[in-house]
Design brief:
174 residues, alpha/beta, Rossmann fold, 8-stranded mixed sheet, 5 helices, 33% helix, globular
Length: 174
């Protein structure tokens, strides 16, 4: 794991996957502001069909790539999932993914705290179509950032507090 990143605490990661379920077979998973890529790697281990990691910090990108190589060669003798790592700004990557007609079942975003990037991520997701009616968007954010109950077609379906961390889940209005 690269130095200087704020990894998702184990209790929060466990809560997310308890909510999502143990079996993610066939799921298309997008991890924005990926950092170490722990969430996407966990999704792979639970059977995700496709995982896309987006991270702009080069050291983090390298760590994600090294972890994917390590897992592919030593742990499962092949990941069984299509994986891509984009070295890009997460908000810019959403535009690129939309242009390339990607659609995701689950989008997880853990932006740096203190910059209102949770709100900006929601607005960008609303503008660029990379979800379908059954998609779920989960944003991990600081307790000082208040996210809207509704952002266009996204409506809060669940919100949980874990110390100073909040997980806010949005479903898509059909």
């Amino acid at each position: 794991m690269p130095k200087g990143i704020r990894p998702t605490p184990d209790v929060v990661r466990k809560a997310i996957f308890d909510f999502l379920g143990q079996d993610l077979t066939g799921v298309r998973f997008l991890e924005l502001f990926a950092g170490s890529g722990a969430m996407g790697l966990e999704a792979i281990s639970r059977g995700a069909l496709e995982v896309v990691f987006v991270e702009k910090e080069r050291l983090c990108v390298r760590a994600i790539q090294e972890n994917l190589t390590l897992l592919s060669s030593k742990t499962w003798k092949g990941l069984g999932a299509s994986c891509e790592v984009f070295a890009d700004d997460s908000l810019m990557a959403i535009k690129r993914l939309a242009r390339d007609c990607h659609k995701f079942d689950i989008i997880f975003a853990d932006p740096p705290y203190g910059h209102d990037l949770g709100k900006k991520t929601l607005k960008t997701l609303e503008t660029y179509d990379i979800v379908h009616p059954d998609s779920l968007v989960i944003i991990q954010h600081d307790k000082h950032e208040t996210l809207p109950d509704r952002q266009g077609r996204f409506l809060i379906s669940r919100q949980r507090h874990y110390g100073s961390t909040i997980l806010t889940s949005y479903g898509c209005q059909k």
